Amino acid sequence: MDGEADGSVTVSEDSGRRRRVHGMLKLYYGLNEEGKTPEQPESLDPCDINGPHFDPELYLNKLRRECSLAELMDQETCMVKQIRSLDSDMQTLVYENYNKFISATDTIRKMKNDFKKMEDEMDCLSANMAAITDFSARISGTLQDQHTQITKLSGVHTLLRKLQFLFELPARLNKCLELQAYAQAVSSHRRARCVLQQYSHLPSFKGIQDDCHAIMDKLAQELRQKFRDGGSSAKDLSECVELLLQLDEPAEELCDKFLSHARSRLESDLQGLEAEIRPYPSTSALKDASARRSSSAAPVGSPTDGSPKTSSLSSPSSNTDILEFIDRGCNEFVSSLCLVITSYQELFINHAQTGELASKNIPQMANGKLHAFVDDLAARYFSLVERRIQEEKGVGDNSLLVRALDRFHRRLQAVAKLLPGSAVPNQGTEIVIRAATERVKQYLCALQSFYMDSLTDVRQALATPRLSVAGASVAGGGALLGGPASGRDAPTSLPELLSSLSASILNQIKSVLASVHLFTAKDITFSNKPYFKGEFCSQGVRESLVVSFIKFLCQSSRQFCESAGDKGGSTPPALLLLLSRLCLDYETSTISYILTLTDEQFLVQHHSPVTPVTSLCAEAREAAQKLLNHYVKVQGLIISQMLRKSVETRDWVNTIEPRNVRAVMKRVVEDTTSIDVQVGLLYEEGVRKAHSSDSSKRTFSVYSSSRQQARYAASYTPSAPMDTNLLSNIHKLFSERIDIFSSVEFNKVSVMTGIIKISLKTFLECVRLRTFGRYGLQQIQVDCHYLQMYLWRFVSDENLVHFLLDEIVGSSAHRCLDPAPMEQSVIEVICERG
Amino acid sequence: MEDDAPVIYGLEFQARALTAQTAETDAIRFLVGTQSLKFDNQIHIIDFDDENNIINKNVLLHQAGEIWHIGASPADKAVLTTCYNKTSDSRLVSCAAVWRMPSDWETGSHESPDDSAHNPQTLELLCRLDDSAHGNAACVLWEPMGDGKRVISLADNNALLWDLQESSTQATVSSTATLEGKGQLKFTAGKWSPHHNCSQLATANDTAIRGWDLRTMSQIYCIENAHGQLVRDLDFNPNRQYYLASCGDDCKVKFWDVRNVQEPIKTLEEHSHWWVDPEGFTFPHTKLQWSSHADSSGSSLLRF
Predict the structure, then answer these.
(1) How far is B145 from chain A, CA to nearest CA, in Å?
(2) Which pLDDT score, from 0 to 100, does residue A257 have?
(3) What is the pLDDT averaged over residues A815-819?
(4) Pairing assessment for the beta strands B253-257 and B243-248 based on DSSP bridges
(5) Which pLDDT does position A735 carry in this prediction?
(6) Residues A568, A480: contact at Cβ < 8 Å?
(7) How far is A674 from chain B (nearest CA, A)?
(8) Which H helix or E strand runs over B14?
(9) CA dihedral of residues A669, A673, A675, A680 (deg, nearest 10)
(10) What is the four-CA torsion angle of A261, A262, A263, A264, rounded to 10 degrees?
(11) Considering CB atoms only, which of B39, B85, B274 is closest to A771?
């Protein structure tokens, strides 16, 4: 049993070893066991004899427990059988493998022998190759000498050909020169030039070089001649310049020559233009003056109907008008300038840019020269044009100037296109702008002088009818009676004069606006410049033309009040009145009308602040007020003078008993009436306080009987001199204070009130300086009553007249040595009789 | 001045003549001459006490006639001149005379102030400046800052330069100037310039202002139509020798530079609400221009 057991153990050990060896072989050959399906997972059962986890101990124990002896024996024999078959399998395998090893060893040995043989052959080959190299070296060594000789020979050949070219060069050049094939000559010479230069130390070459130089100099001479003649076509010229450039002729010099050549031609154009400006230099000043004198008359007619007159005035010092002048300038000067610019650019700039000359900065240099040239000539041209424009003093036909400026401006655009960076077109625009502003100034002057002339006309119109009564008015005893008399004689003409004056001024403004409007017309090239769209309309036309004129109108009106004011009636009062009404009309309607018209015509967009209508209106109203105030003062002064003279020149102490109203009082009433008529022609009636039922009949009786008598009664008692003064002073305190030189309103009644106030106040002041006798006082009473009867109707508040006349009578009573007032009834009788 | 209440002094009669007494250096004193046709006219001596803001007055009788112009001697505070009207045989004559105040007017008034109105003292006549050949006197001007020996009287169209001798009791005409022209020209006002060694005189007639050289008695400048209406009065600027102020019936006060008389330097119309009848008056030590008007309803001081 033990033996079996041992034997079984060994078998199992043995089988285990076999299995391992088998596995290793399988592993070596990479085979799968044929006997087992790959899908079948390897049994984990340690009792599976073929499984990898076979545990012989466990298997044996299991067998021992499960099997019977017989079975064990069967099992043992089966196992021994299997072991034996396996052993034989293994032996077969080992044998097979051994054979294979043997054959492999044989093969390797055979290869070893083959390689040795091959090595020998290779050695042989390298030996052969070395022999070949040796041979080849020997052959090339023998050929070397011949090769160098051939190279040398071919070099000599080319050199000889070159030499032949050189020797032939002078002849060839000469021939080219004869044939005028300058281009060929130049290229030939260029090829030879550096060689000749290099070998110039050899006498023979030197000779050739000298010859060539001579010929080329001649050629250059000829080219230059041709260039200088300039008559040849542009193409020839350009070729000429190109060749000269290739001949190393300095480009600067060529530019200068070209430009100076062009300059002489352009200058002759300019001289032609200049000659047109001053064909009569000696008379131009004279004519200028006459033009200026008559230019004021020129705009009186409208610009269109005045054309025959103005056409002679518009170009005072030259035969041609400005349009012709500018035309000539454009056609001659500007177009040839453009031509010069084009050809110059073609020659020096465009051409040079493509060639090798570009590297020498020639285009820049040439461009600089061209700009300087154009600027210089254009400046002279512009100065001529400006001189010509300045001679354009007459303001008659503006369209001519505008067209001329337009053409001038338009033609400069060509220059702008040719020379993009040039300042010339801008300068041209500036000239146009200057001309336009100058023209606006001239129009302002023309308007102003027109206005002053119109005023002179009005003055004359006012003065003429007065002549007939001048004698009478002087004889009437007054000193300065211009106003009233004229007012009396030309009653109908005042409103007519006003309307005609106002209408003619308005017409003139309109026609001037129309003329100026040409500057901004759509078909004019410069009208779309920002200046003409903005500043010209707002600052130029609106401010410096229209607003300035209105301001001038107001200012000149004011000057009538200031300078002429105190110097007495140098300005006819009627003119003051008329101007005041004119200014008032301007304030109410005309200014806003004119400005609206301007704004509409010129589509003014106000970028900069402009004078508002209201401030102009205020100015006009102020002027109107000042004029009317001044009118009141002047008329008041005229009447005051009459009254003053009448009081001062009389001996009031020794006068006779009054029988009549003094003539001067009648005269005062007459003049006041005529002033009233005059003012009524231009100003509305105005409001007055309600009259009492019997205004004219109001007498001094109340005054005389109560207050005056009371005063005199008191003054007869020496004890109370204070009381009289006190009474009158208290009376004054309670009466309304009268503003003598106060501003008047724009109506007739207010004006008349102002005049009468001044007159009566003067009367009062004169009376206060005199001393009266009894009859003197009575005469004053009569006079005052007479004035009372007629003056009340003119004033706004009749109490004013009453008060002042009361004061006069009261003051004369106070200044009276023997105050015995006249009976009221007697006064009335005298006045009514007078 | 603005802080103090205005000082008002009332006169019994109307008055047109007023002057500051320049010879009085201790007090601020004015002389006022009244105009009354029926009563004895008076000269009121008004002392203004600026510390207490009160007025002291004294009254002297001027029986010769109503006073149109008054002038105080720059040297002797007791001496003054008046131009006055007097009626004789129903004729009106304008006269000018030099007067001396009674020496004790001051003491008398202080002792019995109540009596002064009733028993005023009378002026003592020193001499008359009448020259019947030269017409009616409009005003008499003392030589400014002089010794009280020379006066000028303006009479109608004559300017007469008088020398006062023997304590002003004798007056002789040393030279005359006459205003020539058409019509009846008449001086209305004048001022003796304190500048140029007192060798210049400015006069007003109608609307014109004229300057005279007293050494040659000839006209040196003329401002025609200086005012729109009558020139009432004029005065020199005490500090600036070429500046002249004038006022007229046109309610304007104008300032002139006599070197350029074409245009006034300045024109004031402050009085446009009143009728200006001014006494142009420049106080020597201030730059105040005082103008008043004869309506006796107010006056105004203008400060420059």
Answers:
(1) 31
(2) 75
(3) 85
(4) antiparallel
(5) 56
(6) yes
(7) 22
(8) strand B14-20
(9) 160
(10) 60
(11) B85
A176, A183, A184 from A179: Cα distances, Å? 5, 11, 10
Residues A163-179, mean pLDDT to the nearest whole number: 79
- Do A682 and A498 touch, CB atoms closer than 8 A? yes
On chain A, the residues whose CB falls within 8 A of the CB of B272 are 739-742
Which residues in chain B are closer than 8 Å to A566, comparing Cβ atoms?
207, 225-228, 250
Q: What's the token pair of residue B102? A: 């009674």
Summarize pLDDT for B52-98 with one digit per residue, the tens. 888 888 888 888 888 888 888 888 888 889 898 887 777 778 888 89
Nearest to B163, CA basis, from A678, B153, A422: B153
Note the helical H segments in A490-612.
493-517, 530, 548-562, 573-585, 591-602
Cβ distance B230 to A644 less than 8 Å, yes or no, reads yes
Query: How many angstroms separate the most distant Cα atoms in chain B?
Result: 56
Is the ipTM higher than 0.85? The answer is no
Q: Do A741 and B272 touch (CB under 8 A)?
A: yes
Residue of A321, A317, A312 whose CA lies nearest to A287: A317
**Cβ–Cβ below 8 Å for A816 and B229:** no
Interface test with A, best of B247, B250, B256, B297 (most A CBs within 10 A): B250
Residue extents of the structural domains in chain A: 58-179, 182-249, 444-462+493-630, 650-685+726-833
B251 has a chain A CB within 8 A of its CB? yes
Residue A113 φ/ψ, nearest 5 degrees: -65, -40
- Hey, what amino acid is at A104? A
Beta pairing class for B54-62 and B121-122: parallel
Q: How far is CA A64 from CA A8, A54, A73, A79, A81, in A?
A: 11, 16, 11, 15, 20
Contact criterion met (CB below 8 Å) for B28 and B9: no
Does residue A387 come out as left (phi exceeding 0), alpha (psi in the -120 to 50 range) or beta? alpha
The pLDDT value recorded for residue A427 is 82
Distance, CA of A701 to CA of A714 (rounded, Å)? 18
What's this model's pTM, rounded to 2 decimal places?
A: 0.66
In the predicted model, is pLDDT for residue A124 greater than 80? yes
Q: Which of helix, strand or coil describes residue A333?
A: helix
Of A637, A653, A733, Cβ closest to residue B90: A653
Q: Are strands B121-122 and B137-142 parallel, antiparallel or unpaired?
A: unpaired
Interface test with A, best of B69, B230, B254, B277 (most A CBs within 10 A): B230
SS3 B295: coil
User: Three-class SS of residue A372?
Assistant: helix
Overall residue count recorded for chain A in this entry: 834
Q: Where are the beta strands (DSSP E) in A601-652?
A: none
Q: To which residue do tokens 């071919």 refer?
A: A154
Backbone dihedral angles phi then psi of residue B292, each to the nearest 5 degrees: -130, 180
Coil, strand or helix at B232? strand
Residues from chain B that touch A654, judged by Cβ atoms under 8 A, are: 90-91
Q: Do residue B275 and residue A718 have CB atoms under 8 angstroms apart?
A: no
pLDDT at A489 > cutoff 50? no
Structure tokens at A616: 């102009």
A49 Cβ partners below 8 Å, 6+ apart? A15, A59
Q: Are A240 and A230 in contact (CB under 8 A)?
A: no
Q: Which residue has the tokens 């040796």?
A: A134
Taking phi first (over 0 means left), then psi (-120 to 50 degrees means alpha), and beta for anything else, what does residue A125 get? Answer: alpha
Three-class SS of A761-825:
HHHHHHHHCCCECHHHHHHHHHHHHHHHHHHHHHCCCHHHHHHHHHHHHHHHHHCECCCCCCCHH
Sheet containing strand B121-122, strands side by side: B14-20, B28-35, B41-49, B54-62, B121-122
For residue B275, which residues of chain A lie inside 8 Å, CB to CB? Answer: 740, 761, 765
Rg (CA), chain A: 67
